[in-house]
């Protein structure tokens, strides 16, 4: 096999093979459940599998040659399931460059920000600042033109 798991990924996949949930693994290793999910996701990609039991089996076949003790207890469901990235999104990220490529690769994860709260006040604030700036500029046009006209009458121009 051409995959290479980090020591932390190996440890997490082994614990997942014992049918521990993400929260239980996180508590044992002193990590957050989201970090455990991230490690599992990367391990799934490297091993070419889609769930923790397949990963544990592939790991036991490839690394040690001895089967991992897979218990018959039901798997506790994680708070947020680890979702493998669609291959089209990964290929899309490679063909597109820049910020838009990364944004397009987010697929279902991208959500428009709601207009409300601090964002609403920020937009209103900037609109008021620009409105005041424009009003001050317009109010200065007439006095400046009068001053130029007086200078022309006095022969200073």
Summarize the structure.
By secondary structure, this protein is mostly helical. Helices cover 64% and strands 0% of the residues.
Strand portion: under 5%
CATH architecture of the largest domain: Orthogonal Bundle
Approximate helicity band: 55-70%
Mean pLDDT: 76
User: How many helices in DSSP terms?
Assistant: 7
CATH topology of the largest domain: Arc Repressor Mutant, subunit A
Largest sheet properties: none
Structural class: mainly alpha
Gyration radius over CA: 30 Å
Task: Walk me through what this model shows.
The model has no long low-confidence stretch (mean pLDDT 76). This protein folds into 3 domains: 7-80, Winged helix-like DNA-binding domain superfamily/Winged helix DNA-binding domain (Arc Repressor Mutant, subunit A), CATH 1.10.10; 86-111, no CATH class; 114-157. Helix 1 (7-17) packs across helix 3, helix 1 packs across helix 4 and helix 5 runs antiparallel to helix 6 (98-105). The protein starts with 6 loop residues before the first helix and ends with a helix. The protein has helices at 7-17, 22-29, 33-47, 52-64, 87-95, 98-105, 118-154. It is mainly alpha-helical. This is DNA-binding CsgD family transcriptional regulator. The chain crosses the membrane at residues 119-145.
């Amino acid at each position: 096999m051409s995959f290479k798991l980090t020591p932390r990924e190996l440890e997490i996949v082994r614990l997942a093979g014992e049918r521990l949930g993400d929260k239980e693994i996180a508590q044992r290793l002193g990590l957050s459940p989201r970090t455990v999910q991230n490690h599992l996701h990367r391990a799934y990609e490297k091993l070419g599998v889609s769930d923790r039991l397949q990963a544990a089996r592939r790991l036991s076949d490839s690394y040690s040659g001895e089967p991992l003790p897979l218990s018959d207890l039901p798997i506790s469901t994680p708070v947020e399931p680890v979702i493998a990235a669609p291959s089209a999104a990964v290929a899309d990220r490679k063909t597109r460059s820049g910020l838009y490529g990364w944004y397009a690769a987010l697929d279902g994860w991208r959500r428009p920000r709601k207009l409300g709260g601090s964002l609403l006040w920020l937009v209103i604030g900037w609109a008021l600042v620009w409105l005041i700036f424009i009003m001050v500029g317009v109010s200065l046009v007439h006095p400046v033109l009068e001053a130029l006209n007086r200078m022309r009458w006095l022969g200073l121009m």
